[in-house]
Design brief:
This protein has helices at 16-30, 74-85, 99-111, 125-129, 133-146, 149-152, 162-171, 222-234, 260-271, 285-293, 309-316, 329-332, 346-355, 359-376, 379-394, and strands at residues 3-6, 37-40, 50-53, 56-61, 64-66, 69-71, 90-94, 115-118, 156-159, 178-180, 208-213, 241-246, 277-281, 297-299, 321-323, 339-341. It has 396 residues and is α/β, with parallel strands linked by helices.
């Protein structure tokens, strides 16, 4: 079987959809299922047109960008050439409202092969964090012009959570075509006993380390967390608590105002909590895992997540989680057992953080989360679900 994957950007650019696309292709290749990736040069530099990343064949194409739309005319020819060398059995596209997805859909239609779409929150996610009707217009115009065809007519639409399933239904996709397959994770990477023997925990025994991980944009709602720290300081608990914010600043839309991190720092200074926050910047790989393992509590404040990969990573690292009812949080947080749900209210967030100052409580919550992750989100289980879906589509 050959499953061609199309996606706007790819490694070394790191995003949730990119990580997921790479891991699926890699695990398929390990099972002798050919899964090449067709992408563009968007957000990557000094990389070849064609290369193998581990076992995954990657073909990158030149592009022109209009606002958030990344046009790569060469993808059509690249797919045809690949099909000539070895027949493509399935096209799997990542994210809706993408030129690459459109071309993958047209190719699948032409050659009468199954077309699979992984939504990654791109169906209605924008409606959750873009409040201005004018800013939403490009999304609505796109849907009108394209008639939603790559999503509505896909043979299968993959969503990562029950929340995203509900979005897909609302978007108009036939529920028979929707498959809930969560993001997987390699739990061994987060188990201290399997790490480098030289790894040493650096946790502050006299304080609490809060961790926030995400690409930093306005929909992450970090103002809420800064105000929560202000409440903690008012309770005279500030000496016990420090927040580490991990991630680089991005914009979700070309209409977004830039300079968000600078605004957050000004807010922290105004509220007198600058000494309680450290903006670390982007971290990946072992460095990021070490940050998870050295934290005490994971706190999330995002306005919307279709899944929320950092939530899963925190759970794998055994961190109790404080989060609104978004993405995978709804499926792994058992309130008062593995973490706490919060409203978008700073006092509520600060109160829940204070509830987890007890070390024994944190460890019990964390172990329960690790058990959930191993049972439901190990990559071996997730890839089995993809293989089952692919085989069912090729038999039709």
């Amino acid at each position: 079987m050959k499953v061609a994957r199309v996606i706007e950007t790819f490694l070394p650019n790191i995003t949730g959809p990119v990580n997921q696309a790479y891991k699926i292709s890699l695990e398929l290749e390990k099972r002798n299922i050919n899964s090449p990736v067709f992408t563009t040069y968007y957000n990557v530099k000094n990389v070849p047109d064609e290369e193998f990343i581990d076992l995954v064949s990657v073909k990158r194409l030149p592009y022109a960008r209009i606002m958030q739309y990344c046009i790569s005319p060469g993808i059509k020819k690249a797919l045809e050439e690949s099909n000539t060398k070895k027949k493509i059995d399935i096209i799997h596209a990542h994210t809706y409202r993408s030129y690459q997805t459109e071309q993958g859909y047209q190719f699948a239609k032409k050659h009468k092969i199954p077309f699979v779409l992984s939504a990654h929150g791109s169906l209605l996610g924008y409606d959750k964090y873009l409040k201005n009707k004018l800013v939403k217009m490009p999304y609505l115009i796109y849907d009108s012009l394209k008639k939603k065809l790559p999503a509505i007519n896909a043979d299968a639409v993959i969503v990562n959570s029950q929340l995203e399933y509900d979005d897909a239904i609302k978007f108009g996709i036939d529920k028979k075509k929707i498959h809930v397959i969560p993001v997987g994770i390699d739990t061994l990477l987060y188990e201290k006993k399997n790490k480098d023997p030289n790894f040493v925990l650096k946790k502050n025994k006299n304080g609490i380390s809060l961790l926030f991980v995400a690409r930093i944009s306005r929909n992450r709602n970090l103002e809420l967390l800064i105000h929560a720290l202000h409440f903690i300081k008012k309770k005279n608990l500030n000496k016990k608590c420090k927040l580490f914010v991990i991630g680089k600043e991005i914009v979700n839309s070309d209409t977004d105002k830039r300079g968000y991190v600078a605004e957050l720092k000004q807010l922290a200074q105004k509220l007198g909590v600058s000494d309680m926050i450290q903006f670390v910047g982007e971290k990946t790989g072992k460095e990021l895992i070490d940050l998870y393992l050295n934290a005490d509590i994971f706190v999330y404040t995002s306005l919307y997540e279709n899944f929320g990969q950092p939530l899963l990573e925190a759970a794998a690292a055994g961190l109790p989680i404080i989060s609104p009812r978004i993405g995978i949080a709804r499926e792994i947080i058992k309130d008062g057992e593995t973490g706490y749900f919060v409203e978008y209210d700073a006092k509520d967030v600060s109160d829940k953080i204070a509830l987890l100052f007890d070390k024994n409580e944190r460890e019990i919550f964390g172990k329960r989360l690790q058990t959930i992750v191993k049972k439901k989100y190990a990559w071996s289980k997730i890839i089995n679900e993809y293989c089952k879906l692919y085989r069912s589509l090729t038999k039709k």
